[in-house]
Automatic annotation (TrEMBL):
The keyword Disulfide bond applies. This is Suppressor of tumorigenicity 14 protein homolog. Its main location: membrane. It comes from Chiloscyllium punctatum (Brownbanded bambooshark). Belongs to the peptidase S1 family. InterPro entries: CUB_dom, LDL_receptor-like_sf, LDrepeatLR_classA_rpt, Peptidase_S1_PA, Peptidase_S1_PA_chymotrypsin, Peptidase_S1A_matripase, SEA_dom, SEA_dom_sf. It catalyses: Cleaves various synthetic substrates with Arg or Lys at the P1 position and prefers small side-chain amino acids, such as Ala and Gly, at the P2 position. It is a single-pass type II membrane protein. The active site is at residues 638, 692, 786. Residues 73-192 form the SEA domain. Residues 203-321, 326-430 form the CUB domain. One of its GO terms (biological process) is fertilization. It is found in: Membrane. Pfam families: CUB, Ldl_recept_a, SEA, Trypsin.
Amino acid sequence: MIESSLKYDPKRDEVNGLAEEVVFLPASNQKELEKRNPKEVKLIVGLVIGAALLSLMIGLLVWHFHFRPDNRIKKMYSGYLNISNHQFTEELEDSDSEEFKKLAATVEEMLRETYTGVEGIAPYYVRSTITAFSEGSVIAYYWLECRVPPENEAEFDAGIEALSKQRTRRFKTNVHSSSLRISQLVVDRADPRKVKPPKDKSCSFDLHAVPGKIGTFTSPGFPNSPYPANSWCQWAIRADPDHILELNFVTFDLEKTCQNDFVTVYDSLSPIEKREITERCGIYPPTNALKLMSSRNVMLVTLITDEDENYPGFKAEFKQIPKTKECGKILEGSGSFSSPYYPAYYPPRADCTWTLKVSPSMRVKVEFKIFLLQEPVNGVCNDYVEINDQKICGKQSTQIKLGHGNEMTVRFHSNEAESDRGFFATFEPYDPSTSCTDKLACKNGNCIGNDLKCDGWNDCGDHSDEIGCICSKDQFRCNIGLCKSVFWRCDGVDDCGDNSDEMNCECTIEEMKCANGKCIPKEQKCNQVNECGDGSDEKDCKNEQGSVPCTSNTYSCKNGLCIQKKNPECDGTKDCEDGSDEQNCSCGYRPYRHSRIVGGVAAEPGEWPWQVSLHLKNKGNVCGASVISNRWLVSAAHCFQDARDIKYSDPNIWVAYLGLHVQLQLNEQVVMGNIKQIIVHESYSPQTFDNDIALLELSSPVTFSSVIQPICLPDASHNFPVGKTVTVTGWGRMKEDGPEATVLQQADLRIIKNQVCNKFLSTVVTSRMLCAGFLSGGIDACQGDSGGPLSSVESNGKVFLAGIVSWGDGCARRNKPGVYTKAEKFREWIRKHSGV
Ligand code: 4AZ
């Protein structure tokens, strides 16, 4: 081969003038070789070696650039930077304009110089791409792409981190000999799901608010068809300078699982996490619309969907409103105040101060009626209300705060990311000498009954009724000085607040003793929840994730293997190898879950979308039930026990109201269903109320909506721990012998240990029953609530059926908590009879 190719290469002949040497002979032909002059031979050998080396190098380079497997990790970052010595012009909004292209090229070059000038980044830098500009003086939004070998990832991340911390730099660029003054260069790791190729303009929209007008945009196909699978859409919205944007999703109907389809809204034109206002999925009906505010004149909305299950999508309205510098006020006498733009989500980066004044002899009393702020991160409040030198954040029920004098300062702060609905508060004068006539005045301004002092319960809400007490004979003293009922000792609940009531307990054989002396059910060992409080129940756990021998306390995956993790179903993590713990999880979802904080008694419309009112035809509410599928309801067996005059077991006498909020108020959302069959548990005992459960089949399937949803059924191994807060709902009696409620009522209860309940109740509480309520009384289910749900919000925000309202000794009496049918004990029975 070599021979023939060289022989006919005219160029080679010309250059080297070696035409006569083109006949190469095999090295083995010694005779022929020896005939030549040694100098010529050396030259030929040198040339051959040189050519071979050259081809080898070319080959290596070709391999290196084209065929070598690239195991470097592609890393995408999004960010922005402020150019303080450049003026924003309208042309910069248009990415096709010359101005845009020119400045983009300059900034991209500057970014290249910057990133390639940083030691830990330079070798891995690929490119920077400017995606948009906005006012301020000019803010440039960009993507940064790097490729890093896995072994250099840590060093690279440190380089990026260090760079993002430098706030002001002067960058000189040679391009167009311009000099850009950069203040703030922000760079942030982009979530891989949210990365769209920067130049991809499909499903990418630029919108500008028109003064005095409302603009609209929708997800693709809305309202005629569901949004497409695998969408990556973005809407970059701008307002005029010195304005902010209000974005209102008038319709919002996406898949319920945010891992699959979701909308993200940013307070920026770059999809950077640090500027994320919120990420949403599921349904937001018009009565609970999602309304968001920006802090500046830009906003970015993205819609990302996965490959299946597409929903109608959304319609959004946006408008610009002038940015008001003023936030907070001096308010006198009485009145109300709220977070900026309430009930819209508060804008990021807000700081407001209110000075509240009342007449000199009085004190200021503030009541936060709604309080929905970002939850603390690692115990730190990023968004907060500061009052009496205390920062409050997260979701709080009604809070009363009393000032020290007749003037009080309330501050609100929101950081640059993650907002929520905010707060609404009222204030009024409070006279400590007369405000609680005949009642006990709490430190926080609440008035409570005198008999509630030193009763072991935090009736004031600030413990002031429980401080400085002499413990009675049926009480013991906690280490922190509070007096609590002796019955609460060793009941598995930290009633003292310092766990001292749960120390040095005698554990039963079903319990394990924690290193700190607390007793917990043995089944809670190695369930990845620190029930002991000192981690001793989660130590020395082998095989945590892998399969374990199946017992009644393990979760059985569909493939027959069992896992140790407690309550793994529908928690958003795939725990079973076959993923069966995350199947059939379209349940326990509340479109209205953000509407308000539980604390009052009347529910919000749609807040408990599985709640059913069972009416005897033309006779009103008799029992409650829960939706568990589009055909099946679960209720209590005792509701269908025949009486002398009424055959309650006859399905034809019942009608089920789904999506109902107010009794007899039937709107278009309410669905009335007839009952096809009633299946009462075969072991139900009318004497003891054991196995108090029944299934009702609807005559025709119901369509789920924002006010009709199924509740999740707990697996047989599910554990609702003692002390957990659960919610009972229903239209039952408001007092033991009082009238029934017209508006759906809700009450938060705590799960109480069966042993404790058995000390107090008239009949036995079996292992198929669950006790919940308060030994102090006052909050309970009652007649008419029977059959209704005891709902428990579990991980991932999903709601599970913990119990079914069953019985009690009267209603809301002291030391008489209510009794519920334990839902998890009947999981197999429900499956067997309904297929759900
Ligand atoms: C009932 O009669 C009833 N306090 C239901 C629950 C409770 C009491 C009575 C619990 O249906």
